[in-house]
Amino acid sequence: MKHTIVVIGASGTIGAHLSMRLEQTGHKVIRVSRSSGDYRADITDRASLELLFKNIGTFDAVANAAGDVIALPLEQITDESINFSIANKMMGQVNLVRTALPYIANRGAFALISGVLTDEPILGGVIGTMINGAVEGFVKSAAHEMPRGIRINCISPTVLTESETYHDFFPGFIPVEASKVVTAYERALLGIVNGRIIKV
């Protein structure tokens, strides 16, 4: 069965690989990012999301690969760095789901993103660990209240092989190829799992 899937953050490493894979397997992909793609939107701006989904219309699934957090040592964390990260990776994804719900098809699916820091903190990763945990908590709880048979899951990847600039911040971590993260998205979007944190 082929689906229309909205990929948020389609210009990033994961989003680009995911978009390509979904198209190769016959699905219609609607690419969205802040500065390129079929549509442009900013997940930190609820009005931007409202306009996005109004313009797209009906679709079957949303895959999110966007969301920024600021990495700082604990003693350097500020209210501004926390608020920025909450607005991006946490509330950005929460509002993405809330805004898309009226438009997504019955028995549709959401796939959000957290990350390995939820379970494996690193130096300077306090905010990331905190935000990832909040996103995963939202997914686990929201899965019980999604209407019309809609599912929601979360992908939790470790550092990517393709993102070499980040490898030094993850000493001892075994990088994973983006293609394996894409497979997790396929399971979340096209399978039957619900309320799951899929670790890659």
TrEMBL record:
The record's comment on protein family reads:
Belongs to the short-chain dehydrogenases/reductases (SDR) family.
Xref: SUPFAM superfamilies: NAD(P)-binding Rossmann-fold domains
| Alphabetized InterPro entries for the sequence | NAD(P)-bd_dom_sf (IPR036291), SDR_DHRS6-like (IPR051122), SDR_fam (IPR002347)
Q: Which UniProt keywords apply?
A: Oxidoreductase
Q: Does the keyword Oxidoreductase apply?
A: yes
User: What is the species of this protein?
Assistant: Pedobacter chinensis
Source taxonomy: Bacteria, Pseudomonadati, Bacteroidota, Sphingobacteriia, Sphingobacteriales
What Gene3D superfamilies does the entry give?
Answer: NAD(P)-binding Rossmann-like Domain
User: What molecular functions are annotated in GO for this chain?
Assistant: oxidoreductase activity
What is this protein's name? Short chain dehydrogenase
Query: Which Pfam families does its entry note?
Result: adh_short_C2
Q: Does the keyword Signal apply?
A: no
